[in-house]
């Protein structure tokens, strides 16, 4: 059974809770790295632990959520081996996995619906990396 790392700040709290419930209903377990309320927080405090857990291969994939998705995405991408992708539609989610081998999905809670977020998560989890010509490109991402 797959287990995912998930986290987000106060702006992503409602989405995170809904996505955890949705994934659990589908038989996918989650490790919730916080936040645990809608009280104001700093997104790096949650993006770093999720990213480290994925980087250290404790979890195959992660999900991060903040208001715009940008803050958690920028933070996550500071970690070697992390390929975090900010996705606001299903096609971007699929392409992030197919072409970029993204291992953390970042969602913009203030710009999409929870219904769309679920579809984006489904696409992210259902799509595999194509490899081939994309493998060469992905191998050049790290510094």
From TrEMBL:
InterPro entries: RpiB, RpiB_LacA_LacB, RpiB_LacA_LacB_sf. One of its GO terms (molecular function) is ribose-5-phosphate isomerase activity. GO terms for biological process: D-allose catabolic process; pentose-phosphate shunt, non-oxidative branch. Keywords: Isomerase. Its EC number is 5.3.1.6. D-ribulose 5-phosphate binds at residues 9-10, 67-71, 100, 110, 133, 137. Coiled coil: none annotated. The active site is at 66 (proton acceptor), 99 (proton donor). Pfam families: LacAB_rpiB. SUPFAM superfamilies: Ribose/Galactose isomerase RpiB/AlsB. NCBIfam families: PRK05571.1 (NF004051), rpiB (TIGR01120), rpiB_lacA_lacB (TIGR00689). Belongs to the LacAB/RpiB family. This is Ribose 5-phosphate isomerase B.
